[in-house]
Amino acid sequence: MFAFNEGLDTAIIKPVATGYDAVLPSPVKTGVTNFFGNIEDVFIGVNNLLQGKVPEAASDFGRVLINTTVGLLGLIDWASDAGLEKHDEDFGQTFGRWGVGNGAYVVIPVFGSRTARDTVGLVLDVATDPVAQHKPRRTRDAAVVLRLVNDRANLLAADKVVEEAALDKYSYIRDAYLQRRRNLIHDGNPPREIEADAEQVDRPVTAEAEAGVPRAELAPVSVLAARTESADTK
Question: DSSP label at 101?
Answer without folding.
Answer: -
